[in-house]
Amino acid sequence: MTVEPALADLRLALRLLARAPAFSLASVLVMALGIGANSAIFTALDQTVIRPLPYDDPSRLAMLWEDFSAFGVAKQRVSPGTFVDWRRLNHTFEALAAYGGAAETLTGGGAPQEALGVRVTANLIPLLGVRPLVGRTFAEGEEGLRSGAPVILGYRLWQGRYGGDPGVVGRVIQMNGESHQVIGVMPARFAFPDRDTDFWLPLGLSPEMLAHRNSHFLKVVGRLARGRDPAEAQADMTAVASQLARAFPATNARIGITVVPLKDEMVGDTRTAFTILIAAAACVLLIACANVAHLALARSATRQADFAVRLAVGASPLRILSAMLTESLLLSGGGAAVGLVAAHWTLAALQRMVPSAMAGFVALHLDGRTLAFTAAITIASATLFGLIPGFQASRAVWHDPRTTIGRVRRRSQQALIVGEVAIAFVLVVGAGLLIQTLWRLRAVNPGFRSDGILTAHVSVPLPKYENSDRRSRFYVDALHRIAAIPGVTLAGATSDLPYTSRGNTMSIVIDGQPAASGVGQDVLFRLVSAEYLQTIGARLVEGRFLDAGDRADSTPVVVINQAMARQYWSGEPALGHRIDTGTGDGAPRWMTVVGVVADLRERGLDLGSKAAVYVPFAQTAISFFQPSELAVRTAVEPLSIAREVQEAVWSVDPEQPVSNLRTMDAIVDGELANRTQVLELLGTFAGLALVLAAFGVYAVLSFLVSQRTREIGLRLALGARRQDIMRGMLGDVGLLTGVGLLAGTAAGIAATRLLSSLLYGVTPLDVSTFASMGLLLAAVTLLASYLPTRRAAMTDPVVALRAD
Q: Which domain does 574 fall in, by range?
């Protein structure tokens, strides 16, 4: 087609759409919903899942974990000694690097500030292929340093505390009371391993750490040698695991190694979530197209005289089809413009779904790729909903528009209703499954009470608190002063709050049981204060809780959970048995079991219970693992005493930061956040689908009633009863709905399997969900059809028969 006819079609389409403002506005808004949803979800999917990581040759990067599947943990952190052996024995990685979390108190040059960072091997940043913005990275000789080591600052800390001064490189700053020279600053988009990282220090593995092969606190990242792939690396590391199992049966027997591409590790379940949402958004777009097609079909019935005139003066069927598609493109383009504005507003909500590991360098925004995608679906949508009415209009040159076209139009509208019902059914079933999942998760007894608890992060600095006695005195004094705050009923400290860590385990030795069990006696390890378990509402099953009498100079004791009692002392009381948790000064420290508590699902609501020990921090000699979290039970609103809790800690040590104050309820909500966010969006899409499907049924029936006014009037004049008219029309809708539900059931059986990883306590093919959602959708469609059918039944036969 030449430019001139195309421009003529465009001018004509604009005039015709301007003459039908209600049709045009409704079509644009409906398309805006579908196109906007797709543009927003595509942006999140593209910038989070599809694009490569911002590292050098990221396809060669992988995470490595110890595989504790034999003991209920698929991916476990790595012990220092095991990491060193991996470096030495593997043949497929160009380099392996390790890192572990760190919290440091910054003093001097401003108010005391706690900064979160990581301690890393010297090769970690070069392994990722990222260069500092200013300065340099660590040298190999600096890897073993811990006290007085150099430091690399993150961009956020550099800007916030040091004003973005390039001269900070070379300056000596105070961290945890020690002097550290700044040697570099990283770029703004580098926040490895997550967005909260403000600094990097050398790992500084001490002989004590290397000797504790049963202490798992490192994460390992590797760069594959060129020409190697993850499958080869997995086979190689499996062989390495076998070597270590033979060399160290007490700590490495039955332990494997898992190799995961770094992108997969960072994205996690987000890939599945965004895939589900983009599929749901596509369904909404299809329903939107079906609705606009309904409206266009109805409108084309009033334009038959216009089509006949155009055909009579020589217009070809192709030219009429082109004109109709031009109108469709204008409507779809208008919907795209409005939809992009809505997508921009939606991205702030979607940003919450970006994994923490990627949030430092992924800021969702509309860009050229989004615009290209939007343009593509705009054209595809215009073709999809414009083709049927355009094709029917073009057929008028050969057929009687009052017969063949009428039949084709009705069949098209019926097919569109069936399609809308089927697609809407898939969406509401998916939303129903997620609703059941959240309901079942919230019904799970976590073993503790989250209500009325304030939490705070308080990590004391080393070497200021290197001495375990001094460290214990700080926590005892701080907890005593917090407990004295009006409104506080209990206060405790722990190394890990529920849901904040799925690992942090220790291999223990059980007195009287063979040491050959080795790492089979790997348990969740929690350092706690007296009254911590009471504070979070743990239920005592046997014996007693830890108390203030469990001091460094008293008999070492430990409280365990029921899972551990069942695993190691099944059929006999666990009280009185002794275990060595490896927390002594090198020699065995036998701790007597004095209490058993009900299992706490602290790794996650959807994970089973694992053996756990709760060790009094006052009775341990280790310094590399310590309490860092406070839990304060209150009789008032928890956040209302946040300031008083900070001041109580500062009254013990004015330089001690207190950060991340939040309620335990917020932590529980965070545990459910991924499913909740997917449910909110999928529920929104399902709601839109229901509304659009109902709108489509209503529009079609309203049009059919207007077309069949004379027929209905004649039937009434001949003696037909009004209830028979209604029954017949509702029966037609019911039949179409039933066919749509059958088609939707077939599609839902395949589609809901995508939800498997997000479900808990319900299967993707749950019959009750399919049945209840089917009844809901049937009720909605029948309700939408009631007004048009009632209007048809109330037709005045005299008026109908006089109508042209």
A: 459-656
